[in-house]
UniProtKB/TrEMBL annotation:
Protein name per Swiss-Prot or TrEMBL: Bifunctional protein FolD
Pathway(s) of this molecule: One-carbon metabolism; tetrahydrofolate interconversion
GO cellular component terms attached to this protein's record: cytosol
Subunit-level organization: Homodimer.
Lineage per the UniProt record: Bacteria, Bacillati, Bacillota, Negativicutes, Selenomonadales
């Protein structure tokens, strides 16, 4: 029997529709339109595509969107000044700095991201939002793991009491994913490159989230029959061929539910950015001092 395919397209459409409805309600009640500013520094072609897609999604659902293009030679100070400007602009409720930053300022990434007002931090990377997530307070949550959790919930996959194994411990995916699953009462194991007995650990999982960055690393023999497999990985193995961290072709015959790559988790990230922008606006409306 083959697994249920969890389609990113279906869920992304649903999550964007939810955001669109909320935007209409907020406009009616408060007369405010959510605004998102995306800063892109330099000429990275992949980043330009991502930023264009974010702008398009905003237009589709009624978010005011501003793309700020800064040259490759931008200094740390210039970028921080731009963030400060946006922190104080009332019509901008979400600020995102597209990563990666150019090499010359990449070492200052943490300092630069920490400059974003936590109420406008729609990527959820600011230590205040990280701390709130870990302590169970209302926070802006990183888009990709947040999308994975919402997809699990929308698919009625049982999380409470389930053994969830997250492979990867990055600040962007692995760690927030583990905390989100824990907040929903999963028993969570976090694995990384030093983990011993990875196969045995994976085999005992009811839910596997793979966020490794290694093509087809999770093979069918690592999956318990009927388990749910969420593949966050995006690996380009040929100019026009993307694969995930899971060997989908074989895993699909063992798992109970699985996300494909492409067409899975990747599509959820922008939808969750739209939701986060709405959440940011709502948090700011509730905390007028932060506007
Ligand atoms: P990172 O490189 O920051 O983290 C990778 C993690 O995988 C690390 O924690 C690393 O362990 C772990 N790892 C590496 N090798 C092994 C191994 N042999 N066994 C067990 N664990 C291992 O990547 P990201 O978290 O940023 O991204 C992960 C993947 O998700 C990438 O393919 C990326 O492209 C994709 N991605 C997709 C997004 C989307 O929108 N769908 C968004 C963000 C990322 P250690 O810490 O010990 O080094």
């Amino acid at each position: 029997m083959t697994a249920t395919i969890l389609s990113g397209k279906v869920f992304a459409t649903q999550f964007k529709e939810e955001a669109k409805k909320e935007i209409l309600n907020i406009k009616q009640e408060y007369g405010v339109t959510p605004g998102l500013a995306v800063i892109i520094v330099g000429e990275n072609p992949a980043s330009k595509v991502y930023v264009r897609n974010k702008h398009k999604a905003c237009e589709e659902i009624g978010i005011y969107s501003e793309v700020i293009e800064m040259p490759e030679t931008t200094t740390k100070e210039e970028l921080i000044r731009k963030i400060d400007e946006l922190n104080f602009r009332k019509e901008i409720h979400g600020i995102l700095v597209q990563l990666p930053l150019p090499k010359a300022i990449a070492q200052h990434e943490e300092e630069i991201l920490n400059e974003i007002n936590p109420f406008k931090d729609v990527d959820g990377f600011h230590p205040i939002n990280v701390g709130k997530l870990v302590t169970g307070q209302e926070a802006l949550i990183p888009c990709t793991p947040h999308g994975c959790l919402k997809m699990l919930e929308a698919s009625n996959i049982n999380i409470d009491g389930a053994h969830a194994v997250v492979i990867g411990r990055s600040n962007i995916v692995g760690k927030p994913m583990a905390h989100l699953l824990l907040s929903k009462n999963a028993t969570v194991t976090i694995c990384h490159s030093h983990t011993k007995n990875l196969k045995e650990i994976c085999k005992s999982a009811d839910i596997i989230v793979a966020a490794i960055g290694k093509p087809k690393f999770i093979t069918a023999d690592m999956i318990k029959p009927g388990a749910t497999v969420i593949d966050v990985g995006i690996n380009r193995i040929a100019p026009k061929k993307l694969v995930g961290d899971v060997d989908f072709e074989n895993a699909v015959n063992v798992a109970g539910a699985i996300t494909p790559v492409p067409g899975g988790v990747g599509l959820l990230t922008i939808a969750m950015l739209m939701q986060n922008t709405v959440t940011a606006l709502k948090m700011q409306l509730a905390n007028q001092y932060a506007l």
